[in-house]
Fold this protein.
Amino acid sequence: MKQGPPRTLGVASEFVGSTIAYFDCFSGISGDMALGALIDSGADRAVLDAAVEALGLTGEVTIEVRHETRGHAGGTRVLVGVTERIERTVPALRLVVEESGAPEGVKVPALDAINRLARAEARVHGIAEEQVHLHELGGADTLVDVVGVFWLLHALDVVRVYSSPLPAPRGLKGGMPLPAPASLRVLEGSGAVFQPTDEQRELVTPTGAAILAASATFERPAMTMRRVGYGIGAHDAPGNSLAVWIGDEVAGQTGVTLLETNLDDMAPNLIAALAEDLMAAGALDVTVVPALMKKGRPGHVLTVMAPPELVASLSDLLLRHSTTLGIRLSPIQRVIAGRRVIEVMTAIGPARVKVKELDGGPVEVAPEYEDCRRISRQTGMDLREVMRVVAEAARRELGLP
């Protein structure tokens, strides 16, 4: 399953080395557990009240926040009560969120989560999305869970969410398969990782699944932790809680696989096209190095850096679209510096700049070639001079010498 690069929340721009949240779902996840964990980690409860008001649900729901324990685990329990349940169809749910006063960075992932819930419930029950009219989608409590979680993340300045593997029980509970079909449907294509567990109850609710599917990358990041919060679940089983770590993403060590092959009977222009296709298919990097092959024939060594989840698909592409008969695979580790992209304004026009970061701070800048090339063509300035001007503007903005 293709997981892809870490996703940013809402409309946030690419930013590495900033605040992240890691959901440690050792006992599963639900919407109320996520709310409790975020408040327990330092988010202001008033933000949740603001979400209720912005959604126009003040007279429809009640919020209770209290400390509870489950065995040796203590944390925050959030109870979202519904005083009058109003069933809403999917279009009505979307309209409530779209017309709310929530920030745009909250609306985007919230609508994504609702859409995933709608698609899942529609498939489970064999009806059109517009006809979905069920408890999991119709209640104001679901709206508060989804919008509340993303608003709390927004208030904590979280730009990326990561998640641990999810516990997956097996069997039947009240005639319903475990894990719940709706939760599995929500997580289809999200890159979620499942681990077997001996528990015989629902651990990942559809709402909890939708929150992660809309925002999370399912891997454990390298981070410095500032705070941790525990959200207590409704079931009284010992340890029934969700942990959320809040901290800063740092340069991390990640595993990749090198795909390597020798080519001595393939035209250079076809190798160039193959390299472009490999990058478009998700390769992290592609290099082509001239080499002297057996019998003195000139050739090339093509090397592809692949994330683990794309090794199979990139290997297939390489075998199908080159003359090679085999590929060498080598697992390696790499250390990654933080990076983000900013746009700077200069006297010759705007341009994007890549910023390299270590320990959360900028250390180097690199102007985007395409932007500088565009300015060079428009102004007639030498490309080197354009890149110098853009780099100096970026350094001034970031306070670099």
In short: The first helix runs from residue 31 to 40. The chain has three domains: 20-249, 252-336, 338-398. The domain at 338-398 is CATH 3.10.20.300 (Ubiquitin-like (UB roll)).
